[in-house]
Amino acid sequence: MGANGACGEVATQRVRPLLGTFVAIRIDACDGDPEASFAAAFARIEAVHRAMSFHDATSELARLNREAAASPMRVGADLWRVLCASLALARASDGGFDPTIAARLVHSGHLPRPDAPPPDLDATWRDIELLQHQSVHFHRPVWLDFGGIAKGHAVDRAVAVLRQHGVHSGVVNAGGDLRVFGAAQETVHVRDPRDPGRSLPLLQVREGAVATSAGYFSNRHGRSALLDTRCDTTLGHGMSASVCAPRALWADALTKVVLVDPDGALPLLRRLRAQAALIDSTGRVRTLS
Questions:
Q1: Which of 156-160, 177-181, 182-186, 234-238 has the lowest mean pLDDT?
Q2: Does position 2 have pLDDT exceeding 50, yes or no?
Q3: Which residues have C-beta within 8 Å of that of residue 216, sequence separation ≥ 6?
């Protein structure tokens, strides 16, 4: 690092606990002050965390779950973008990706019970209406949770901020949901379903994002946090799904669609210019593209 604070071509990394995991940001090349770039990128991730935390009763998401069934509520840009993407994926996957999964995760003990009206047992993502001026209305009470997509959105926003601060090349990694940009290249490792303590090199990525979902560490009382809400079955037992896409938001969310129905996910993967890899309990890798 030079005396003027510019990082040039020297790799620099910072790590902070955010989004329920550890977020690592690596800057490989930049024109400006790397510390200012780190601060701005982490602040952007913190803003996403504050808006979409299911655990925080003061978050914008918590307020939406409390109030949107009574009257339309206007939301901020982050929540609006993620909600729009979530509903688009829910429609395209026929509910394979389901942002109203929270009620089931509360029942299984994976999420705390919120201070919000109990969800209607027959309510689905179809009961969410997007109105003008970033307003949202629930036709019936539902509980939204964006644990399957918010990390990817936060990673994308952090990359945008880094670029605005003159960072040309680097990596943002939120607990395995990562995006690589510029000249940087990253070897992506995933956990071996046969031995989750061991990692396997899966691919190398440049100018793209990768995310992985699996059931090895999300089990509670024998149930995974990964669910197909259409038939209330758990997913990811003894296997993992990794998706490579141009944006981390799509990579993050598509891992759940792939786990629900690998073959049915193919048209959506192609539409979003994504590829997937499934690793089963024997270590066999199946690619989808």
A1: 234-238
A2: no
A3: 191, 193, 196, 236, 240
| Alpha carbon distance 223, 182 (integer Å) | 40
**From residue 179, how far is each of 14, 174, 187 by CA, in Å?**
15, 9, 12
> Within a 13 Å sphere around the CA of 31, how many CA atoms are in the beta-carbon half?
5
Verdict on whether the full-model pTM lies above 0.70: yes
Q: Give residue 57's pLDDT.
A: 93
Q: Which residues lie closer than 8 Å to 64 by C-beta, 6 or more apart?
A: 73, 75, 79, 136, 144
C-alpha–C-alpha distance, residues 192 and 238, integer Å: 9
Q: What is the CA radius of gyration of the chain?
A: 19
Q: For residue 214, what are its two tokens?
A: 């699996």
Phi, psi of 119 (to 5 degrees): -70, 145
Tell me 143's DSSP state.
Answer: -
CB distance 39 to 33 below 8 Å: no
Higher pLDDT: 140 or 10? It is: 140
Give 256's contacts (C-beta < 8 A, 6+ positions apart). 96, 97, 148, 213, 226, 235, 241
Determine the pLDDT at residue 283: 79
Look at residues 173, 170, 125, 180 and name the one whose alpha carbon lies nearest to residue 151.
173
User: Between the CA of residue 140 and those of 54, 61, 127, 271, what are the distances in Å?
Assistant: 19, 16, 6, 31
Residue 66 is predicted with a pLDDT of: 96
Complete domains list, the chain, with CATH: 12-30+167-288 (3.10.520.10), 55-138 (1.10.3980.10)
The C-alpha atoms of residue 270 and residue 289 are separated, in whole angstroms, by: 6
Average pLDDT of the residues in 87-98: 93
Q: How far apart are CA 234 and CA 190, in angstroms?
A: 20
